[in-house]
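Let's practice the habit of predicting before peeking. Look at the sequence and jot down your guess about where helices and strands might fall. Then scroll down.
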Amino acid sequence: MIDKKKMATKIDQAKALADKYELKMLSNEFEMLKKVNDDYKINVLFIGGYSAGKSALLNCLIGSEKLVENQAPETAIATELCFAEVDSIYAVDMDGKMARLSSTDQADPEKHNHLVYNIFSEQLRDLPEYIMVDTPGFDSGIERHNKALMQYIGNKGTAYIIVVDCEKGTLSNSALNYLNEVSHYSNDIAVIINKCDKKTKDDVEAIKNHVVDLIVSNCGKECPVITTSKYDDDVSVKLKSLIHEFDPQELYEKNIGSLVESKISDLKKALTIIEKNEFLDVSDFDIEIAKREKTKEKLQKEIKIKQENMKRKKRDEIKNRIVNDISVKLNNNARALADAYKTSVECLQEKVISLVRPIIVKSVKDYEIESCEELIKSIEVANLDFGEGIDAEEVGKILSDVLVKIESVSNALNSVRLSEENEGGVDTSKYKAIMSLLAITTDVVAPPLEILIVFLPDIIKLVNVFMVNHQEQQLVSEIQKKVIPQIANKVAEQLDTSLESVEQVMVQNIEDAVVDLLQVETDALEKAKQKKSEKETEFNNYISELRSDIALLA
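Done guessing? Here is the structure:
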């Protein structure tokens, strides 16, 4: 059971202090954090190839056939399963708004982001801290399926269960790449070898040992691996036992803890600003407030200028790196691509995506981090003309704080769970205060992956034209000479737009962080100014009490 009391107490204490000193912006943020904390549950993401049996296993877990098994890829949509006293289904659109459905048949994969299925299930009642997420197959070759997965992957506090089809006898390259990718975000990973009724016990044991070896050799770590089938009498017990191996308290603290600590740091900063300026005259407060307004305007302009100066060089550099990495990876696997092509065009497409996808994801993530740090460090605060009375050293510290905050909060919480009672959706703008310091979200990482879906069919048509009846070595050679360069060129053509999206969100996040930090200080100064205008004795008492409250936050 997740113990939320300690975190709830910290939030309540911090909100009480924000209210006491009339820091409304921070008070609202702590109020929102209370809801996030109260509603928090852990996503257990069931990931697997198309027809691996994810839905069938989840039906066994919940004790009823709520999910459609063997669903056509075109109609698949991510579905969150939650315990409730009464069954209900909600569709969540791309803007986060919820609409109640009478059945899953009403879901529109083109319009809806995911479904929330509230289910009365004794088995789910035993898993109150978790939300099971049934995801579309990652090898379906459908653009929106990448989006469905990307909205969850990368969030701290998410647990992953990779479902493998025992009939295939091994982990596919797609599965290995996904496993490799999520292992960078989380240690909370498990593997289910499913459909074991199709193999003998000895074969199942051999496949399990083979899968364990593959995981260790590719990811450098072990994770729980179980074997089962929807026909096993104890399948539900096995699944619950596997889920219970994830530490819910640790996952919760990864997610909520960093958010709470970040906001408490902002509160402490605001109170310290008030305390530091206790001896200023009222007119001096006006000067300090004006300084921050000038600083904000100047920094916003400077950030835009520096972005323009650096982005072309940086973007070309990272684009060339991505294209080169893709070319090297595909050439090193040319024979495997040829083998995949001989099986089917779809198999070749899956193989290309499985090889290219991790490179793009990692490269875009690296670009985000490198560009963010480089942009902030490129602003030479000492050389900026802020006007009389502006302390360049103080502004430099603000920029440093921005980088630290973005790094510390970047993957803390990328989504807010919606309560089942909230039929009308949620006003996402009201969560901006606690979300604006996040680094680039997975929504921005997704577009480069969609490039693959867009251009690969045309490349494969080209394959059909010139590679019919070719010998093995000739086929490999043709792939290296004609197919791989085409893939690299198409990626290069599209990367500018995708990297520009990363830059735009990154710059906006930095600007929001600067504005938020300065606004916290401005609010604190306004409050101090108001109190300073009152009787001197009352103000001294106020400062004394303030120092005691700051000590409580240490």
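How did you do? The chain has two domains: 40-246, 300-419+435-529.
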